[in-house]
Amino acid sequence: MRDVLAEAAFQLFLERGFEQTTVDDIVARAGVGRRSFFRYFPSKEDAVFPDHERCLADMTEFLAAAADADDPVAKVCDAARLVLRMYAADPEFSVQRYRLTREVPGLRTYELSVVRRYERTLAGYLHDRCGGDPDGALRADVIAAAVVAAHNNALRSWLRSGGRGDAEAAVDHALGLVLDVWGVSAASGGDPGGGPAVRPAGAGPDAGDDVVVLVTRRGTPIWRVVQQVEAALGSR
């Protein structure tokens, strides 16, 4: 019934416009009563984004299962990809919704509130991984914001193109920039778990002899330092 109501609502929004469509119009098209609509959707705006609640639940479940991940930033990026897959599963609907959202200020505001919920979910996972780091909470919030910004930049470019091109490749590229800075192997201290951050100096296709720059906290176990150096050299 939730899907039936959402489909009826969206069809009417496209045909008549969002502001011109009433809840009575929606339930008449769906063949149900007003009570049925409000059982599933608090407002018309909610009917435009019926899939986000499920995606948020999937993201929460995914992150809960990744509590012991070696690279929590990579896991957060993987969680963000769940949103991409939701959009890519129905490109025509996603593009139409994007265009409708651009035309209705109230829908744009609602969408921003949904994006904020995704960001809080990602940040909450990172907060749990920051331990006693004095800057842990700040780092978690910054990383979560960066992941959401990178993901949404690529996703919206794909939507503006009408759903043409490889959305997954675009999002992977954008999230790769975040991982370059904040992932376990990033040189700028990007390991939210408090361990060392390593990157081969001058890493790139034209890099010469291996030089490893290691940034770590005093007291980091030597086995972890060696592990990170070996991982960095092995990636060359």
What is the CATH first-level class name of the largest domain?
Mainly Alpha
- What oligomerization state is this entry in? single chain
Helix-strand pattern: HHHHHHHHHHEEH
Read across the widest sheet, the strand sequence of neighbours is: 1-2
Labels describing this entry:
elongated, 3 domains, 67% helix, two-stranded antiparallel ribbon, 236 residues, mainly alpha, Tetracycline Repressor, domain 2, 11 helices
What does this structure look like?
The chain is mainly alpha-helical and 236 residues long. It folds into three domains: 2-46, Orthogonal Bundle (Arc Repressor Mutant, subunit A); 51-182, Tetracycline Repressor, domain 2, CATH 1.10.357; 197-234, no CATH class. The protein is built from eleven helices and two strands. The N and C termini lie far apart (53 Å).
